[in-house]
UniProtKB/TrEMBL annotation:
InterPro entries: SH3_domain_YSC84-like, Ysc84_actin-binding. It comes from marine metagenome. Coiled coil: none annotated. This is Ysc84 actin-binding domain-containing protein. Residues 99-223 form the Ysc84 actin-binding domain.
Length: 269
């Protein structure tokens, strides 16, 4: 338990230091996303259950989503998405945009942080292929809340996407029907320094191949996914693969991501 506290303190310290040196809007977006995940660590009774994170293909964080209208209004926001690597670390973040969709009546809330937990490879493929519409291309449900929610027998985590929002410091599950998620290609190009970079290439690389802000986000997210190692260390005996996430690591409650493989290969029987 003490080791876990030391690791958490280190991760938060790295995050705080990185915020001071953020020098681009893309880095700021990544660090804002890390802050949202950090808040999940601080309020486990009101956050995303660890079990749901542990079985996810990908996680998206969209901080400060703005409301276009009053009451039942559409939303717009920019964030990042990461996918599972074969060694159970997280990939570099890919920049995304979220548009449309109603979050229900939230009078007085100027902005909302959104967290999406993706359970299927098809949902991630939809984003990288052009656009994923929640509720149409992938079933989306309000996510369970709290550290013990995942232990309930009636929670089978059968939806493709689970959505969460945070306003005024509290997380709550929400049904984000009709919202569309697309690539933010200009942001990817600016952050990684290449106009030709693809989402597949970003997902296949480790945290050390990107600016420091990316690794900060990965470390904070790793601390939330209980039991997974911090850092982008890969197995020395791993078989080379164009998309490393396609390799089957045969670990309980974990699914890995591969762009050009049979998704059934990634499931542990």
């Amino acid at each position: 338990m003490r080791l876990r506290q030391i690791i958490f303190t280190f991760v938060v310290s790295v995050f705080a230091a990185s915020v001071c040196y953020a020098d681009s809007k893309e880095e700021t977006r990544v660090l804002d996303s890390a802050d949202v995940v950090d808040q999940l660590l601080r309020i486990p009774e009101q956050g995303v259950p660890t079990r749901l994170f542990s079985s996810a293909f990908g996680v998206a964080v969209i901080p400060r989503v703005l409301k276009v209208g009053f009451g039942l209004g559409a939303r717009f926001g920019r964030g990042v998405v990461v996918v599972r690597q074969p060694d159970n670390t997280w990939s570099n973040p890919v920049f995304i945009k979220l548009t449309g969709g109603s979050l229900g009546l939230q009078a007085g809330a100027q902005s909302t942080d959104i967290v999406l937990v993706f359970k299927t490879r098809a949902s991630i493929d939809g984003i990288t292929s052009g656009k994923l519409t929640l509720g149409a291309d992938a079933a989306v449900a309000a996510g369970p809340i709290g550290r013990f929610a995942g232990a309930a027998t009636d929670w089978t985590f059968s939806s493709e996407v689970y959505s969460y929002s945070r306003s005024r410091g509290l997380f709550a599950g929400l049904a984000l029907q009709g919202a569309g998620i697309t690539m933010d290609r200009p942001a990817n190009a600016a952050f990684y320094g290449s106009a030709e970079i693809t989402p597949e290439a970003i997902f296949a690389s480790s945290g050390n191949a990107a600016p420091a802000a990316a690794n900060t986000f990965i470390q904070v997210l790793t601390a939330q996914t209980n039991g997974l190692p911090i850092g982008p260390s890969a197995s020395a005996n791993a078989t080379p693969n164009r998309y490393p996430g396609s390799q089957n690591k045969n670990l309980p409650e974990v699914r890995t991501f591969g762009m050009n493989t049979n998704p059934d290969d990634n499931l542990r029987n």
